[in-house]
Amino acid sequence: MTGPANPGWVGARRLLRRLRDIMAGPGTAQARLDLIASLIARELVAEVCSIYVRRAGDVLELFATEGLRPDAVHNTRLLVGEGLVGFVAAQAMPVALADAQAHPLFAFRPETGEERYSSLMGVPVLRGGHVLGVLVIQNRTQRSYTDEEVETLETTAMVLAEMIAGSNIMSGDEARFDAVPEALPQRLEGLPLSPGLTLGTALVQSRRVTIERMLSDDPEIEEQRVRKALDALTGQLDAALDRPEFSETGEHRDVLETFRMFAEDRGWLRRINEAIRTGLSAEAAVQRVQDETRARLGQVSDAYLRERVLDFEELANRLLRQLVESEQDGVAAIPEDAVLIARSLGPGELLNYEPGNLKAVILEDGSVNAHATIVARALGVPLVGRLDGLLSRVETGDEVLVDAENGVVYLRPGDEVRANFEMAMAARSARLEVYRGLRDEPPETRDGTHVGLLLNAGLLADMNHLEDTAAEGVGLYRTEIPFMVRATYPDVAAQTDFYARVLDEAEGRPVVFRTLDIGGDKVLPYLQSSSEDNPAMGWRASRIALDRPAMLRHQLRALITASAGRDLSVMFPMIAQVAEFDAAKRLLDLEIERVAKRGDPVPRSIRAGVMLEVPALALQLENLLLRTDFLSIGSNDLVQFLFASDRGNPRLEGRYDVLAPAVLNFLKNIADTCGDADTELTVCGEMAGDPVSAMALLGLGYRRLSMSPANIGPVKAMVRSIAIGNVVDYLNVPLQSPVPSLRPHLRAFAQDHGIEV
Ligand code: PEP
Ligand code: MG
C-alpha cells in the first residue's frame, strides 16, 4: 500500500492532530465545541462551520458555530428531515452543494444570517449507526466541494461523535443513545425463528469496542495492522469450519464458507485503507467504514442486502476486537443459562459461545432465512427475532423468558408470569412426550380414514425430523435455501450432490422437490435483480424459470441425476396458467430425454405437479388436471392473493383468516374437482399445520397435509380424535355464513366433539 502522497490527506491529518489537541485540552465541552467549529472553518477554508446536535424528539439544535450569528446558538432548531441539515440527519448521508439556496430542501433561518452563504456541505455525525448530529460548512462563493473534502469532513465528524457521546453536553434524561433500561417487567413480541421454550439470564452482546487511539501519523503501520488482524480472523474462521457441527456439507457450512469469502472482500479493505490514509488509526478506520455501511444500508428492505450488511457488521466487529484486544481468540465463557441478546448476529457469531450454556438468542433484527437463523437451527438454539427496541429495554443479568414457539419474550418477569411460564414449559414437555408417544400410532381418524402427514423441509438438517416424527415423506422441499446462502451459483454437480443427499436421508420415503421459488424478497447474489413495487406478484419463481430456462434446466438435470433408480416428484411454484405448466413440463421432458440419450441412469418414476398459489389457476382445473400428476395448495400465497393482502405486512396481520368462508369455499371446489379427477391433492401452506385449520381441511375432503416438523404431533393428535363424518356434516351450513372467520365456531365444534385442537 502506498503512503501519504496525497496533499489532501496531509491536510486532513493536520486537521485531525489539532482536533485531538483541542479535545485533550482544558475547558468545558461547550468551549471545546466552539474551538472545534473555528478550527474546521479555518482548515477547510470555509466562512461558516456549524455543529448541530440531535436532542430528544428528533430535534437538531445548533450547538456551536463559526460564522453564523452567535445568538443563534441553542436557539436555532430543526427537525430531523427538515431543511438540508435535517435531510443529512434523516438520510445519514453527506450533501455537498455549490448552490444550496437553490435546493428545494433549503430551509431559511433568518436568525442565523445565513442568507449570505451560497454553498453548503453537511455530513452526519455518526456513532454506532445512530446519527448524533450534523456537521456543516458553508461558503459565500459558489464552491464545488471535492470528494476528498467530503471525506475529510466525515472523518472529522467521526472524531466529533466520540466527543459528543463522551461528554455530558446534554442533560441526563436526554442521553438519547444510552437509553436507561426500564426496570419494569416487559413483554415483547417478535418473530419465532428457531423453536423452543426456555428461561435464562440476559447476556447483552457487547459490540462496541472502546477505541483509545483514534488518530495515527503513520498509515503504513496502520495498514499492516489491518492486514495482520484480517489474517488472524480468517484463521479463526477456518478453525470454526473444522468444528464437528460443521464437518458435514449442508447449508450451515455454506453459510460460514461464504462469510469467510467476504473477509477477503477487496472493496471493504480498500475503504478501510482509504480511511486510514485520512489520518485515522486502523481501529478508527474500521469503525468508520462500519458506521457508514450501517447507516446507509441499515434501512434497506432488500433481504439480500440486509444480510450483507450483517455479514460486514460481524466482520468489522471481529476485526475491531482483533485490533484492540489483540489475539482475543477461542470461545467466550458465558453463564450457564445465558440468553444472548443482540441487535443482529452474523453467521459465525453463535460459534463464539460455549454451546451447552447458550440457552436462547433474541434479536432486534433477524429473519426467517437469515444466515444466523440457519446456524441457530442447526445448533438447536431457540431464536426470536424482530423484537423492536429490545436493546434499550434490557441489561446483562436481567431474567428473560423466551417463548420461541410464539415469538414472545418476557423481560424481568414478575413471580406470577414466571410461574405461568414454568407451567407452560412443563406442559410443553408433557405435550412433546405425548406426541412422542403418538409417533408409532397410525394417522387415522376415529372413523378409519388415513390422513397423509408430510413434512415441509428446506434444510438438510430438517430431514432428521422424518425419523422423529414418523412423517410419511416430504410434501414440500423448498430448494431455494442452498442457492441463497452461497455467494456463487451452485453448478449442476453441486446441486446433484445436494439432492442426492436429501433423497439418501429420506431413506425411500417420497420427497416432493419444489423448483426454485426465488425473486421478490428472495434474492440470489449472482442473479441480477431490480427492485419491484410488488415483488410477491412480480418476477418470481416459475416466471423467472421460464424466462431463464437454463437455470431451471440445470436444476431439473440435477434432480433427475440425483434420483437415478429412485422416484422423483417435481413441483412448479407460482403457476398461473396451464400454458406455464406445459412449458415447464416440456423442459422436464427435454432433460429426461437428454439424460436417457447419454445412456445415464434415469429415475424409476417421474411425477410432475403444480403448486396452486395463484387463484386464476383454480379456474383452469379442468385442463390442468388432464396434464398434472398432482396438485399442492400453497395456501400462504393463495390466501394473500385471494384477499389481496400482503402476507408479510404486519399491519394486515390477523385481518383476514384462512378459515374465512370465502377461502373454505374456494378450497372445497378444488378438493371436489380433484376428487372427481382422482388427482392427488395436498395442502402445504401453513394452514395444514394448524390443528383447527387441518380439521376444516379434512371436512372439505383433503387427505394429505404437509407441515413443519413441530406441527406433526398436534395435527396427528387431532386426526386421531376426530370422526370426519361429523365435521363434513357440520361444515355444510356455515360455509355460506357472512362471518369473517369460522375459527371460533370450529373451535367450539372441536370442544363439543372431544377433538384435540
Ligand atoms: C405457500 O405459498 O403456501 C407455500 C407453501 O410456499 P412459500 O411459503 O414457500 O411461499
Ligand atoms: Mg408460496
Query: Could you say which structural class the secondary elements and strand pairing correspond to?
Result: alpha/beta
Please estimate the helix content: 40-55%
Total number of helices: 25
Bound small molecules, which ones?
phosphoenolpyruvate, magnesium ion
Given as residue ranges, the uncertain stretches (5+ residues, pLDDT < 50) are: 1-5, 171-182
Q: Tell me the β content.
A: 15-25%
* Biggest sheet details: 8 strands, mixed
What would CATH call the homologous superfamily of the largest domain?
A: Phosphohistidine domain
Q: Kindly report the oligomeric state of this protein.
A: single chain
**Termini separation (Å)?**
67 Å
Report the average pLDDT across residues: 87
Name of the CATH class of the largest domain: Alpha Beta
Instruction: Give the strand order of the largest sheet, numbering strands 1, 2, ... along the chain.
Output: 7-14-13-9-10-11-12-8
What is the rounded Rg?
Answer: 30 Å
- The tally of domains stands at 4
By CATH, the architecture of the largest domain is named: 3-Layer(bba) Sandwich
Number of strands: 22
Query: The CATH topology of the largest domain is what?
Result: Glucose Oxidase, domain 1
Shape field: elongated
